[in-house]
């Protein structure tokens, strides 16, 4: 596959994230309210305003949920129509008036998140975290090579790129402390992930192949994590408040159709998977990922580079497993891949791993970091690299704000 | 507080679940589509059809979410108006035509569940389960006396009373097995809980007192649980598919206002709570609860009797804790109390506890039960008992259907 040319020249420029091959979906506000858009070159097209050939009801709300629910035939028809409108010079005049410069718009949540599930499915990440907490010999939990381990997260805390993230308060208790205390998180972290978005829902068990067909597209996802809150709360029922402050997603839904040329296999299996989890073909994607960290007032430095192909389980496998109990899935469900780490030290998807549990701080733009500091701006980048073109996601960014002042009602009374 | 009399005589009958003091909210279908209703005596009143005195937009959808979002002043106004309409004989003629016999209606989900959180907050339950799995000395996790332990459940799997529940498939691996297998759950269980419904949402941290004021009402809740799926999957990130088959709620939202006369204190604390979790007054309720089990074709037998006052943490404390990280809460969020067990052997809220991990089967209507069998009908009952009246919840019931036949794509290929 090579570059498809658009009459919009910026879409054909080398390195452009949004060529005609991409056509990712978002929601933008150019000053007149939220609208559904598709990114092309350095612009966004107001999709509802052009001759899209579909039922206008699909564009009634500024959110992609209705289109997602309409299913794969509608997804294919819309993509083909937008290719025609933006690729064929005959439509230039009619379409141009509905283009707006990306630099002048605010980007909103591209869809309403129904429920949010997060997984733990990169082997290097699970091995790193397990080694830090339990030692190298017990790094991987016994079920890890058999189950795409997942847990339910909090949909209400999912925000779009650009939203500030306030450092959380929580119950903290270190291994040496006698009792827990209520304090701001001191080990605030990122998690580099890819999010898969369920387009069409399901009732009952769904095969890996059918699960793959349900996925509308992907976003970059940063699952902000309070490691000290997590350490004290997570036994026996898993992370809860440690993961409920915010999860940031990139503003553009990159469709499964745009990523199709970049399919790659999951890695060789050390232990055979049960038949229900086996894949009929390659279901991961070759997507380069990186993490940038800019301390307040300093330049950004890339602190990690990895690839989505490092995953042990694909989103299709995760979604299939999600349905085994009969769990209904719905349009707008968001599945986080789990933190994506590669084998190398420079390919780790969390500061927990980069600083090895805080013991080996990294240097970022001249300052030391074990975990995130107030004022840090964290940005995830991602792109699939084609033959003379790239499929970009747009940045997934957020700045850490200081914790709120302590509310009076949380304070210890003086004791005698 | 004593019985408030209605002109509808069935509401004044001894033992009636729905006297004028109660006025629980539900959604019913008498054959002409779903409508918002309030239960009174042996009838349901079509609330949208009477002179309720509120904005008609609150009744546009057959769901209580809009009323809940409107806040405590609207809740109080509606309750006062319904008391007047159903209590004052002057309204009998105008109101009677909008009453329908409960026996002739289908009851639907009373509200749209935004997100579902489940807790682990009955001390007897946590102690029983901990003793079964880890022995009496390590029964309570170290954090249990400090944190209302919770995890996110799956909102899409919440169903209304009367819905059948199909035995799930899942990955199972017993302690003696070499490898996991994909099979129907063999240890399917109930969990007797009370569900608290968030009426008004929040951003940022909320005190226990403010959290209490956000709660619109309560339902009975059965969190169906696959113990064998849970045993293999739940480390390290908590239960996932074990809890995603179904959660059944009773059809009537019993309001916090109706339950106000039944407030009781949480129990004495063995370990001081952090100040943020301390309660300004009694925030539990004295609600008698019981569990009935009817094997297929046999009579129902009550297998457990307990009380909501057995909880160690109230719903207000749980909701407060839920917000500490800054987690936004929304109208329609559902918080399960966690399984409610009392101190006695006859007061256990799950078969896991009643049969002590399956080792001591109980006898139900002449048959043995360690866990649920296909065809079993399970029903939760609950009521607060006042002076000459009771505040009932309506039954919370479901029948266990056999697992679906095994799909071809989950089968082991023949190996040589």
Summed up, what is this model?
The structure is a homodimer of 416-residue chains. With 416 residues, chain A is an alpha+beta fold.
Fold and architecture overview:
Chains A, B: This is fumarylacetoacetase. Two copies of one chain form a homodimer. Chain A has 416 residues and is an alpha+beta fold. Chain A folds into two domains: 9-108, Fumarylacetoacetase, N-terminal domain (SH3 type barrels); 116-401, Fumarylacetoacetate hydrolase, domain 2. Chain A contains nine helices and 27 strands. Chain A has helices at 65-70, 72-87, 92-96, 123-134, 208-214, 227-233, 256-259, 315-323, 351-354, and strands at 25-29, 34-40, 43-46, 99-101, 106-108, 116-119, 150-152, 158-160, 165-166, 169-172, 181-184, 188-189, 192-198, 215-223, 225-226, 247-249, 254-255, 263-264, 284-285, 288-294, 301-307, 334-336, 362-364, 367-369, 377-385, 390-392, 396-401. In chain A, strands 6, 7, 8, 13, 14, 16, 17 and 22 form an eight-stranded mixed beta sheet that branches. In chain A, strands 9, 20, 21, 25, 26 and 27 form a six-stranded mixed beta sheet that branches. Chain A has a five-stranded antiparallel beta sheet with strand order 4-3-2-1-5, with no helix packed on it. In chain A, helix 5 crosses helix 8 (315-323). The longest helix of chain A has 16 residues, at 72-87. Chain A is globular and about 75 Å long. Chain A starts with 24 loop residues before the first strand and ends in a 15-residue tail after the last strand. The mean pLDDT of chain A is 97. Chains A and B meet through strand 7, strand 10 and helix 6 of A and strand 7, strand 10 and helix 6 of B.
């Amino acid at each position: 596959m090579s570059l498809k040319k658009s009459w919009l020249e910026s879409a054909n420029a080398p390195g452009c994230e949004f060529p005609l091959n991409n056509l990712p979906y978002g929601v933008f506000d150019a000053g007149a309210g939220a609208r559904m858009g598709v990114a092309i070159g350095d612009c966004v097209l107001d999709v509802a305003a052009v001759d899209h050939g579909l039922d206008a009801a699909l564009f009634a709300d500024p959110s992609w949920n209705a289109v997602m629910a309409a299913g794969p035939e509608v997804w294919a028809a819309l993509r083909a129509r937008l290719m025609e409108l933006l690729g064929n010079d005959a439509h230039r005049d009619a379409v141009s008036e509905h283009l707006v410069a990306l630099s002048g718009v605010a980007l909103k949540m591209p869809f309403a998140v129904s429920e949010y599930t997060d997984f733990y499915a990169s082997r290097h990440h699970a091995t790193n975290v397990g080694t830090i907490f339990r030692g190298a010999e017990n790094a991987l939990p016994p079920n890890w090579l058999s189950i795409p381990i997942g847990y339910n997260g909090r949909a209400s805390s999912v925000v779009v790129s650009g939203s500030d993230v306030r450092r959380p308060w929580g119950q903290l208790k270190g291994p040496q402390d006698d009792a827990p205390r209520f304090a701001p998180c001191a080990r605030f972290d990122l998690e580099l992930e890819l999010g898969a978005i369920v387009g069409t829902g399901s009732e009952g068990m769904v095969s890996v192949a059918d699960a793959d067909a349900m996925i509308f597209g992907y976003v970059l996802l940063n699952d902000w994590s309070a490691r000290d809150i997590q350490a004290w709360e997570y036994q026996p029922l898993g992370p809860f408040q440690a993961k409920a402050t915010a999860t940031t997603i990139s503003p553009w839904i990159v469709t499964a159709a745009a990523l199709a040329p970049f399919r790659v296999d999951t890695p060789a299996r050390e232990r055979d998977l049960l038949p229900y989890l086996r894949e009929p073909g390659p279901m991961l994607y070759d997507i380069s990922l990186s993490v940038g960290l800019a301390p307040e007032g300093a330049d950004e430095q890339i602190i990690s580079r990895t690839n989505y192909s490092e995953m042990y389980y694909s989103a299709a496998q995760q979604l299939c497993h999600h349905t085994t109990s009969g769990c209904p899935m719905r349009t707008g469900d968001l599945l986080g891949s789990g933190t994506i780490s590669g084998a190398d030290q420079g390919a780790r998807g969390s500061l927990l791993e980069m600083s090895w549990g805080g013991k080996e701080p990294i240097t970022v733009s001249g300052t030391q970091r074990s975990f995130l500091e107030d004022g840090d701006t964290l940005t995830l980048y991602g792109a699939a690299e084609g033959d003379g073109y790239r499929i970009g996601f747009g940045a997934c960014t957020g700045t850490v704000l200081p914790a709120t002042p302590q509310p009076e009602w949380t304070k210890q009374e003086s004791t005698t």
